[in-house]
Amino acid sequence: MLQTHRLLSPIPLLLAMAAAVLAFHATPALASTTQEPIFQDDIALKNNPAGTLDTLRSLGVARVRVFIPWSSIAPSSNSRHKPHNFSPSNPNSYPAQNWRPYDAIVQDAAVRGIAIDFTITGPAPLWATGSGAPRGTHPQWKPSASEFRSFVTAVGRRYPSVHYWAIWNEPNYGPDLAPQEIHSSGVELAPRLYRNLLDAAWSALHSTGHGRDTILIGEVAPRGITTGGQPGQFGGMVPLRFINALYCVDSKYRQLRGSAAAARGCPTNAAGSRAFRTAHPALFQASGFADHPYPQGLAPNRQTWPNPGPNQYADLPQMGVLERVLDRLQRTYGSGARLPIYSTEFGYRTSPPELGLPSWAKASLYLNWAEYLTYRDPRVRSYMQYLLRDPVAGNFPSGLENFRGRRKDTYDAFRMPLFLPVTSARRGRSLEVWGDVRPAAFAKLDSGKVQQVQIQYRRGSRASFQTVKTVPISNSRGYFDVRTQFPASGSVRLQWAYPTGGVIHSRTESVSIR
């Protein structure tokens, strides 16, 4: 779960986008028309895997992201001593009950045609952490790469039917991986730790028959602290600084040399740099780079403020910047790879229950707007919703339901998105209507029939909605993008019916016809 938002105080000021950011919002020649919907709610899935997966299937979710925390599987996680006669590469050497929640999720998802994204992450068992931690228990402190390789090997052997993996969660965030840096020194340490973890996991997955699977790296939090001596050991490092250090380059994309390189675990000379691609294959051969582009409660085209610079954050308005940085890093080492971007954690926290955040209605607009923007970017391969239900304590209320199970406006918005980039036109002119009937893929599979969505319109606030266009759904993910004329100012919505019965609607959008 993204925590970095807590490192920054909410600031109401909205900053106009820079020219580099505006480029992201321009309509490109291509679009990510097959971007996959991913969903995550570990608590709901573990507590009720079958029921939760039934709900997610009705929402059209194609894949669920599930954390496999190392310490939740490993024996004696709270001990400094590794268990005697423990074989960490053998899944049968782990307590059987520790695997059971994940076994159930994998089995129940397969029955429903929902795929799995396993994010193998920390915290580590204490016996696999390094020395030198501050006083107290810090299971994220210097996790052993060799022990992590053994654990990933066990996971890979346990789940031969899973073919989609991510390595660690938010490695640029101190509560997930520490130390981030030596306090006030400017020497990044977490990128070195993460590079070693990537090497270990990459080797383990390939050795267990998963070499051709989707393997994602990154999973970065979108922001971090830059004031004072931050991020220190346990703060959050701004992601693009983290990425540069991960690839052993400076802020101008020059390969590090000498003591600066040595301090970050990087090659100190040209010979070492020439071998860097071979030594760290995950950095160059991964299936994609995963980002958590949370927008800090703002409209999805608004940059979080304060921003320490155009090459620091990786939230939604800076997706294009992230892409260019990754391409630049590849070219630094003679690689032409253009890693796809995967949005693997995203959502809007709402008010209620958290004050100062978008209302349920505003958040539903923002969700659809954000998905439209990622759809228009051909590099983005997934769209993500984090949480089905808000936590009881109200911590990170980004669910589609509140903690009592009441559906928010975002529930319908996620199930059947609707977005009009422009909402006013002269009479006789058409407007772009973009949307997604997310459950359509499962509906076609279940019924064998091509699905259709109705674009509906009503004049004023009391008239009945009337269908103005019926659109066949040919896209494998349920997306459509058409132009439609409306006779006058009024309201627009989508209507669709499940093959088994039950009519559903999108949120409503107002249009102005002059």
Compile the SSE list and pairings.
Blueprint (H helix, E strand, L loop, with lengths): L18 H7 L10 E5 L1 H6 L1 H10 L4 E7 H4 L22 H16 L3 E7 L23 H14 L5 E4 L22 H18 L6 E7 L18 H8 L11 H6 L6 H5 L1 H4 L2 H4 L2 E4 L27 H14 L8 E3 L16 H16 L4 E7 L22 H7 L2 E2 L4 E2 L4 E7 L3 H8 L4 E8 L6 E7 L6 E7 L4 E8 L5 E3 L3 E5 L1
Parallel strand pairs: 1-2, 1-8, 2-3, 3-4, 4-5, 5-6, 6-7, 7-8, 10-17
Antiparallel strand pairs: 9-11, 11-14, 12-13, 12-15, 15-16, 15-17
Helix pairs in contact: 6-7, 7-8, 14-15
What would you note in describing this structure?
The protein has 514 residues and is of the alpha/beta class. The chain has 2 domains: 4-415, TIM Barrel, CATH 3.20.20; 418-513, Immunoglobulin-like (Sandwich). The chain contains 16 helices and 17 strands. An 8-stranded parallel barrel has the order 1-2-3-4-5-6-7-8. Strands 10, 12, 13, 15, 16 and 17 form a 6-stranded mixed β-sheet that branches. α7 (190-207) crosses α8. The longest helix has 18 residues, at 190-207. The radius of gyration is 23 Å and the shape is globular. It starts with 18 loop residues before the first helix and ends with a strand. Mean pLDDT is 92; it is low at 1-29.
